Amino acid sequence: MASGTALIYDDEMTSHRLLWEDPICDIEIPERLSSCYKNLKCYNLVERCLSVPVREGTEDEITLVHSLDYLEVVKNTQKMSEEELRKASANYDAVFFHPTTYRCAKLAVGATLQLVDAVMSGTTRNGMALVRPPGHHSQRDAANGFCVFNNVAIAAKYTQRKYDVQRVLIVDWDVHHGQGIQYIFEEDPSVLYFSWHRFEHQRYWPSLRESNYDVVGRGKGEGFNMNVPWNKIGMKNSDYLAVFLHVLLPVAFEFDPELVLVSAGYDSGIGDPEGQMSATPECFAHLTHFLMHLAKGKLCVVLEGGYHLRSLSESVCMTIKTLLGDPLPALSGEMKPCLSALESMHDVRAAHKPYWKCFSYEDLTPLKDLSTKSCQLEEGEPVQTGIPLVNQQEAAKTNSDEATKTDKFLELHMKEILSLEPAVRTVVAVAEGNADLLPSFVQMEMNGDSEELKAIVRAFAAEFVNVEKVLNVLGNMLAVLEKIVKKKVTSGLVVSPEASLSSALALKHCRNLRLQKVLCIFVGDMDMNIDLDDGKAFLINICGKQSEQANTKYSISLNWKEDAEGSTFSSMLFGVILPVAYSYQPDLVMIVVGSNQILGTNGISLLISLLQGLAQSRILALIQDTEVQLLEDIAKPLTGDITPCFGTCTPALQENIHMVKELRKELQQEWKMLQCSGK
Ligand code: Q9C
Ligand code: ZN
């Protein structure tokens, strides 16, 4: 299994720049690239990546997507005077050429292909290419929106040819619609293109009818183009997360790509003058983390837009930290998608219902009939083209005030979310005989014989069991728990002969340690004696047998009927567990694995892996000693190692579908991240 993260960067791509005044293009500056690299150095991330050199993309590679005529046009800009460059630029919308543009655009293509080669050959698991000029707006015969060659589209075609790959997923989280990518793969079912974009009912650039949610692809490619239009500005972490959970991820897991490419624009982040959105840098850590679970981890992130230097560079750092497997910072902000986001989600889910099994059982009210010509734009109504000239100076001042405000906010915010990261990732407490089942780099815990901890165990367990027998195990468990709570380590794993007793003790100790909220997930058949009234613990019980207990505010049962071999449980995971967990915002996640667990090893690894998005990745895993064969599958995701191949998502059983639907209905008033419709 491949490991490591590739980073592709070259200073030379900073030579492409705007030579004249142009208020539309003047945000696409060389410092976008250099400031990202500088910040990566600052966080000591460069030395943790494998540095891969850039190369030029060849003419054969560029013409996988672009016409020879267009290639010639760009080539000819090399020897032009400034006057000629201006004229050539004016042939396209929001584009500038420089004498080095052709060279840089070839390097941007080549850098992207170097990244894809590193990942497809198994040299690294994943990686990021920092490139300029960006690519996703450029088309077969046209430059557009600062983009010259379509780096990501070329990479998709290149991979399919060279590595005989059948399915590529392109996730475009840039705030603009990558219409170039859409056009290139519109009729191609082998490339699934997902884009969210500022749209404002078609008033926002590039103001295209075909950017709306009902444009789903054509011919054989029907269903393989997903557009999520943002009709309001100010979208937040919870809006982006909701779209991932309820739109992209179910479809992506069903599609089961062999490679994931990200058109990674950070103009969808806070402070960006183009996007006007509010997602904070750690949001990109979470988005990245989700995508790392597809395609056996083969994830290539390629820079597109991003025009607020601080926001851009912090978000790029969060992306690369996550690719490297670091713990995730908690997602900040209220976990409640806004009404406009809910409407967009509903519309795109309804539009895609005919094409994806994951939506086929949903009650989605039919779509509004959008006229074929234009969307909500009235005939003759002018398209917003930016700020009226008279107000430009004032607007520039307000913009720069805003930018400085965001700078200050981000300085504090990043300190806050990164300062307390523990030095050690995972500690374990297991019987010595089991130690060889563990990854070699985890740290063992032996502090259980402290008298203080023993006293806590004795006081707790005396009435239940022969205390002396479990004294050491439970003492070790408390020691592990304390290390997590005191932020000495990120996560811990304990094997115990009495998993459910252990969990009750652990929870009690959490209260002693003044933890506010603990999310407990029980997998398998267990008795639970947990006090659930005050909201300090939330219990999710995943079991095969029908439980008699009704769901309460802080306790839900998922009675999961065993699925067919290889089937995953994405509807439960993305439809219930993760939305509830993100809404609850726990300080610690405790996962308890008992006998008869019905998820299978892949299911349990995926669950544990995805739970690292919560509670700053602080997880305590308790395993019943009869289930010790699961040790490696649980330890690996805890250490940030994502290995399992989840395979395609076969249709879930009717009973499970029904259970998930009822549960969502019942819970979505309380736990808002479950919502995915404005109706
Ligand atoms: N009034 C990328 O982010 N704005 N391109 C044009 C015209 C162009 C963005 C506004 C924005 C291009 C890669
Ligand atoms: Zn953009």
From TrEMBL:
Gene3D superfamilies assigned: Histone deacetylase domain
Protein name in the entry: Histone deacetylase 10
Start and end residues of each Histone deacetylase domain: 28-322
Entry-linked Pfam families: Hist_deacetyl
Lineage of source species: Eukaryota, Metazoa, Chordata, Craniata, Vertebrata
